[in-house]
Structures are given as structure tokens and as C-alpha cells.
Write a structure and sequence with these properties.
Its EC number is 2.7.13.3. The chain has about 350 residues and is α+β, with helices and mostly antiparallel strands. It folds into three domains: about 120 residues, 2-Layer Sandwich (Beta-Lactamase); about 100 residues, Beta-Lactamase (2-Layer Sandwich); about 55 residues, no CATH class. It is built from nine helices and twelve strands. The strands form three sheets. The protein has a five-stranded antiparallel β-sheet, sandwiched between helices. It is elongated, with a radius of gyration of 43 Å.
Length: about 350
Amino acid sequence: MTDSDKNKEQLLNELIDLRKKIIELDEIKNSPKSTEKQLKKSEQLYNLIFKNSSDIIGITTFSLNPVYIYINPSIKSIGYKQEELLGKSPFDFIHPDDRKKLFPLLKKYVNAKVKKLLTGKESTITERIEYRFKDKEGNWCDFQSTGNIVGNQLLFITRDITDQKKTEEALSKSQQEFASLFESSPEALIYTDEKSNILDINPRFTELFSYTLEEIKGRNIDDGIIHPSDKMEEGKKLTEKALKGYFYCETIRKKKDGTFFPVVISGSQVIIDDQLRGMITLYQDVTERQNMLNKLRKSEEKYRNLFENMPGAYYRTDREGNLIMINPEGAKLFGYNSLEDILG
């Protein structure tokens, strides 16, 4: 390589280095403009989010008695115009019993700010609180807010959960009513999941079968706990019917001490949010009824035997005079062997 070639190579390298420096200088020169554009773009984006968010976004002064300095258009959802809240304290709209929930939070924010001034360390405090907020018509709405420190201001993002609260309260009331009916039912009830595992029983079930919930919770109702050995398959089939809709059956079940007794069983599926959650089964002890029926049958049989063995001719008719019963002596008197022969 000649000296001339070296000079060319050196010159080329110097030109490349110079070009790199020019690019760096251009980047430094244009950096503030780029940053300014990015900031402006971010500001436009956040402004768009603030204005179009369905949540209520508010910014207040940083103090123990804050006032609104910004509120987004979503405040219209509870009847207010934005200007009606600006310059006013949130405490003017918060239920008196709920204001005490906000004071500790504000104190935390103030303490965090003081700590930053003393140590230079930023403390991140994000807390969610629920409280009641008065709407334009004077009604109390249930609000859920998340607050945070933004510079020398406080940012609160708030969601109206009034409908959610009403739904929760209605559900809670419904659950309480169901629990009350379940517990106080005069018939034995058992609640099982969709796999027939026992979830709950009422006091009458314990009284009837002698099992407590602690003894049988989690066990499968069809594992023979209350079934005689010859009723196991029947129990499984009844469970299948209950999980599909409804069933009714008169059968025999077994108590804890092994005693068999007659029962009427009915059951149906439990549907929650369109999902099968299990079934409720009712057991009615019909021992007394069965005893009465047995006594009635015995009495009827005794009467029939007495009637049929009476030495004279006896018969019974209905109100229209139709013959409905005649003893053998009566049938013979008329030349027949029995009532069936007379009626033909």
C-alpha cells in the first residue's frame, strides 16, 4: 500500500468519524424538540383518556381539606356539570359517616410528601376506599375510589358501584332468606353439589337420620350412608333425575343406627347464574302414615272377614241403590256364588 493510499484511507476514516459526530450533534440539537413532541403527544393521549373514561376522574389540591381543581365529564352520570364541583371540597358531597374513611388516607399522603421532602425518596401510596357520594338530586351513590399523589396534587379515579351494591345486597338478602328457609324447614333437607357431595344439612335432617353436618360433610350421598344395601342403585338413579330436573319417590332409607324407615323423597336441581350447582333433596318421614294405613287395612280386612262369615244374607248398596257388596250367604240366596257373578 502506497503513502497515497494510506492518506486516502485515513481521510475516509476521518470523514466517517466526522459524520458520526455531526449525527450526534444533530440528535442533541433535535432532542428537546423530540421530547417536546412526545410530551405533547402524551398530554393529548392522557387528556383523551380523561375526557372519555367512563370512570369519574378528579384532581384535588394537596391538603387535609382538598378542593377539586379538575373533574372529567363523567361526573354528568350523577347529574352534575363539571363547573359545579370545581373549587369545592369532596367532603361537601361525601356522606358524614364516610368522611372518616378519607381523613386517614389524606394523612398518609401528607406524611408521604413530608418524607419525600426530608429524604428525597418517593413513597407510592395507592389505596381503594368505598364511600357514599351525594348526586345532584340528593340521593346517595356508592362510590369506589383509588387515590394517588401526582406532583403537588391528588388524583382520584372513581367508579359508581351503586348498581353492583344493590345486586350484592339483593343476593345477600336472597341467601339469608334461603338459609332461613333451609334451616327452619319442618322436613329434612340436604344440599349436595353437582357430584352429589354433601355441602349442608338442616336440623331436621340431623333429627331424622341422627347425623351431624360434621360427620357427613363432603361425603357422597350415594355411598350408602342413608341407603339400605338393596336401595343403592335406586339412590343413584334418583340423583341422576334430580340433576336433570325433579323427582318424587316413596321408598325406604336408613338411619345412623341402622333402622329402616319409610320416606317420601323429592329433589330438584340448583341452578345459579345458568350453571348447575347441585341439588336440594327433601326427606319426609312417613312412618306414622304407613302405620295408619296398615291399621286401616287390618280394620278393613277384619270387617270384610266378619261380613263374609255372617250366617245370614247381607249386602250393601250405593246411594243410587246399586249393589256394591254381598256376602256369600246372600249370593247363594239369589242363586249366585259371589258378587262378581251377580254383577256379571
